[in-house]
Fold:
Amino acid sequence: MKQFTRKTLSVLLAVLMVLSVFAGLTAFAGDDDPADPAQTGYTEVKEVPATCTEPGCAAHYEDADGNPYLLVDGEFQPVGDAATLVLPVIPHDIKTVAATESTCAVVGHEACYQCKKCSKYFSDAEGENEIELSDIALPQPPHTLTKSDASAPTCNHVGYIEYWYCDVCKQYFRDADAATAISVNETIVPSLGHSFSVTERVDATCTGDGYAVYTCTRDGCGYSYTETFDKLDHVDADGSGYCDSCGRTMNPDACLLCGKNHTGTFGKIVRFFHHIIWTLLNM
Structure:
């Protein structure tokens, strides 16, 4: 029993020693780990890289009041001077910009320099004297203008306003000073189209077709066209057997000229010649 107790105590002591060593190692390792900002009330601020136009800001932490801190050896140390966090502006990446010639449509400029990063212009290769292209603009030559007189529209053709055209820049203008630019469509006056009135009319009857002549009344046009009307049907409203308008018999077998029923060989000859005469009279 005593031997068992001694062995048990030895095992327990050994286990306690191992646990103590492990706890010490864990505590030692934990001392090297950086503090967790989320658990300490600090907010991490990412680095803002500097550019050629704006300074940057180094990475740091801030407390609830916005005061800056740095994490040093696992501890948050206040930043004595916030200016130490400022990252200086980086140099411009300068390229040479060649001079461009001015035309009547485009303003040119003298040679200068430009930063590839921020696209700003400078008068010096060091990028110290910033300028605008308007500061070094070259004078524009005047437009080479040709005047076109106004022309009145007609029924079938468009007209044009008075305008000026530059042969160099291919631009249209409303005035001789080239102050108001316009499109080619704005120089056009739409055609008028015809204005018709009836100048002659014959109504259709049961013996012939009718027609109407329409003529454009605009000065200098004179265009006309004719509309025809089909011949009307014969009408026997009173039942007399004859057309109420022309008096022709309504009997389909009757002679067209005299309205009689010609029979026999001689009658057919008479009807034939009567038909010829009726046709000539109604041409």
User: Anything to note?
Assistant: The first strand starts at residue 43 and ends at 45. Residues 31-90 form one domain. Residues 212 and 227 are 5 Å apart (CA to CA). The first helix runs from residue 2 to 32.
